[in-house]
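hi! just following up on the protien thing from before. the input was this:
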Amino acid sequence: MKGTWIIMALLATYGFASAQQDDSTHVERQINIEKEYTPEIKDVKRKDIEYNIEEFAVRPSNLTYSNYALPINPQTPFSPLEAEKQNVVKLKAAKTGYADIGLGFNMNWRAEGYYKILKSESNILDVHLNHIGVYYGKKDPKAFIHTGVSFDYKHLAYTGHQIDANVSYRNRYYSYYGEDQLGWDTLKKLDYQQFQSRHTLNMSASAHSTKSMNDWDYKADLGYKMDDLQYDDLAELNLFGGVTGYKSFGKHQVELKLFCDGYIYSSVGDVMKHSNNVFVELAPYYNLNTSFIDLRVGARMLMACMRGQVFNAMPDVTATIHPHKMVRLTLAAVGDYRRNTVATMMDMNPYYIFNDTLKNSYTPADFRLALTVTPVSELTLSARANYAFNKNEVNFFNAFHSDFNGLYETRYFNALYIDVKHLLVGFTARYTFKERYSFMADFAWNKWFTAEDEEIWNKPECELHVGVEMMPIDGLRFDVNYYLATGRKYSKINDINQENIDGRLTLKDCTGKMNDIHDLNIGGSYLIKNLVTVYVRANNILGSIKDIRWQRWNGYDNMGFNMTFGAKIAF
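and the predicted 3d structure came back as:
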């Protein structure tokens, strides 16, 4: 009996031990450690923003022609009208490059190429080639041939700086009517026709900070530009450089800009050499950006070191008030000092002949007002007005020279510098529907106030530009735009209508009315598999109709109706 109890005690002990061992393999333990946490609050400072190198967008570029197609958006203040642009479907994703070839009538052609030579995290190098030409006519040939090449380089330094550099060359060769009577050496093909060839070389470099250094930022520029008029033996050399520094204090920022540029001329005579000059500009600014107002208060002070008015000061104050996300009001009082150089004068009027010392244009004050309303995200309406005081405003006029019988005359343009007050009132409307249909309308009315015996030539009184762009299906795009300019005048100054009254040369009947500009353009393009874009374009459809044929500059016909077919291949 005693042995039985001993055996039962041993079995119970073994079972208890076994149970203890099995339970230990299934126990789940959860340990929570709680500790009181006190967060550390640091002073709020502007965080440095990390930037990535900006990549050049690879997209079909614009097709630009000469003065036979001229719609633009009216600007404030008025600026000369330039050529219509060819829009084609943009690529959905960036490619390494593209090639574009187009051909049409009347005898127009284009070839363009783009390639990304180098791309890395810190370096990008691109090359862009373009060649556009129009040439037709036998008795009075019309030509515009534009050739250009550009290299663009960007380098992102890990120390917080980015460097940009550009080297470009372009040549503009175009018909130039008339015979030079001013003693210049020119290429004369026929009695009433010649050509002009303008070469432009541009080299520039800039650097700017991509990461603030103790709330300081900067931008520095340095460059060289050369414009050469081949058949006039006239060249302009421009050297420029400047630096701008920014210091931020939260919503406040102070800015200081120092800029210097100089112009040197080389010509067959001594006239242009008197236009040499050096300019030094200093501009301090204060900027404030809040949810209610963006304010910029500053002034530009400029010294002309070699000729003209030595010291010039212009206000530069702009306030943009946005009391509501749908309303924006802009008030501004600004000024300008425009350097009228060989390059800028030829940009305004390529048929100008340099026969006198250049004068610069000075705007002591230009008062501007603009109101923009966005009632819905797809619709934007804006109205604008400005009133400017301009000294030595450039006013191009026709100059004629006739033989004794009045049978033979040559024509060219001179520049008259006058003081003028300019009032502009404009309206703009833009609407986008479902991101496939876009409508726009721009209108501008200009009024110039001058002395009683002075006129404004070649500039329109009213401008209207309307257009629509649509993409009914993916890849297929159409656009139509129409430009109208009215109220333009031209000068009729020549040897015949001049008379001498009391020792003063007086002009008789010196102003005529120019035809209104009616410029209608239609285009379409289709993107195939995101690689090939085919397009067709009809420019200046109304330009060849006899009754409404127009000229951009009096005596210089536009090139008339033309059509282009082409294809762009991305790779």
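The first helix runs from residue 2 to 24.
Confidence is low (pLDDT under 50) at residues 4-87, 181-192, 403-408, 495-501.
cheers
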